[in-house]
Amino acid sequence: MKRITSTIISVLILILLLSSCSSKNGVDIASLNGSGGNKEGSPDITIQSPMTLSNNYLIPINREHQYLRLKMVKGKYYEDWTPGAYMGTIWEGYFIIELSDESGNVISQSELSKIYKEPFDY
Fold first, then answer.
1. How far apart, in whole angstroms, are the C-alpha atoms of residue 62 and residue 15?
2. Tens of pLDDT along 28-53?
């Protein structure tokens, strides 16, 4: 009796797994998150204030408690998972590089848009 019960349960689990993997009613994930090369209809994430993309502690380099930060000040974030040069997560817009102390006070700041006359991808 135990053997029959365990066989029936195994067969039911196998049927459930195989039916859940069916592609008949599959959802196209690329169409939901806007990837797949269609940038016009994609639900991009637009930033409202400066956003820190990289925060680097500089004590191993200059022996001072300072941070070097890359911030996006204007732009958008989106994902494109189609194979190619821009595959993956993409930050597109205007960026600044900022040097600050351990309290967050800005020591120096440079706009990359002064160097590059157009938005660039990161």
1. 62
2. 444 444 444 444 555 678 788 888 88
Beta-sheet pairing, 45-46 with 88-101: unpaired
pLDDT per residue as tens digits for the range 70-102:
999 888 888 888 888 878 888 888 889 999 998
Structure tokens at 88: 């993956």
Sign of the CA dihedral 11, 12, 13, 14? positive
10 in a structural domain: no
Range of the structural domain that residue 97 is part of: 27-121
What is the full DSSP assignment across 40-79? TT---EE-SS-EEEEEEE-HHHHSSSEEEEEEEEEEEEEE
